[in-house]
Design goal:
Elements: H1 7-23, E1 33-37, E2 41-42, E3 45-46, E4 48-53, E5 64-136, E6 139-142, H2 148-161
Parallel strand pairs: 4-5, 5-6
Antiparallel strand pairs: 1-4, 2-3
Amino acid sequence: MATYGSDEDRLRRIEEKLNQLQQQGIPASRMFGYEYKSKQTLLGLPLIHVAQGIDIKTGKPRVARGFIAVGNIAIGVFAFGGIALGGVAFGGISLALVALGGMAVGLLLGGGGMATGYIAVGGMAIGYYAVGGLALGIHALGGNAHDPAFMESIRQFLDKYGSYL
């Protein structure tokens, strides 16, 4: 079993690495992430907040919170991140009114590999209206389901609005 030394030894090695980075002109803080917050606000939130990595002072992941939020964890009216929460969210895991991502939980619309929502579209879709490889819902279209009434309503919608798409 490998041993890595005491806490003091690990801290010394980290400090040496940080000094090497600074000598190369690389800010040490870049090792731990990045943060930008705009001075402009909207609805009491920064207009744009970008946050990634670990906060050196707390040792916790940075969270982007803004009208437009971008980061590993993002919370905003428009959120983009690994984990994204908000009004409209795009992320690996997203939870929002309109959610798009690998796993998307949308109250109104969910789209992604696994999607839930009133309207859900994805590889696995669960919703009142569901379209996907595995579609589970009251009105479903997919590899496992074919709702003729839902199909007809889609045809009518496309006949009426298809020229705008």
